[in-house]
Design brief:
single chain; alpha+beta; 434 Repressor (Amino-terminal Domain); rod-shaped
Length: 119
């Protein structure tokens, strides 16, 4: 809950759980100047910003995000993929090399994601 009181020379903002007693005191003191609004949850995955950002992402960007989210270094991921070098993983992430179907299948298993994510 968010409570705003706008009165000349007085500004009060309270965020979080606000007791009924406090609301009553504020309403008695400031009347119509009290603005109360409930917090609204916004699903970040449904925002225009997220959709636009997702469209701009390349397979290498997704690979880097998944690798970092798992806490893998490039060297560890290279080993899990079959003894690939850190340099090769860097090339994939930076778009200097394309992800092959074989590697994309392995990535989809390692990260439990769709193979389409890496192609």
């Amino acid at each position: 809950m968010l409570v705003h009181v706008k009165a000349p020379h007085t500004k009060i903002e309270i965020e979080g759980e606000v007791s009924e007693r406090l609301l009553e005191v504020l309403k008695n003191e400031y009347g119509e100047m009290v603005d109360i609004s409930d917090d609204e949850y916004i699903d970040p995955f449904k925002t225009d910003w997220y959709k636009a950002t997702k469209e701009k992402m390349k397979p290498g960007d997704r690979l880097r995000i998944d690798r970092e989210n798992k806490g893998f270094t490039q060297q560890i991921l290279g080993f899990k993929l079959g003894k690939f070098s850190r340099h090769y993983i860097s090339d994939l992430e930076n778009g200097r090399k394309n992800v092959s179907i074989r590697v994309a299948r392995k990535l989809s298993v390692i990260f439990n994601k769709s193979i389409d994510r890496y192609i």
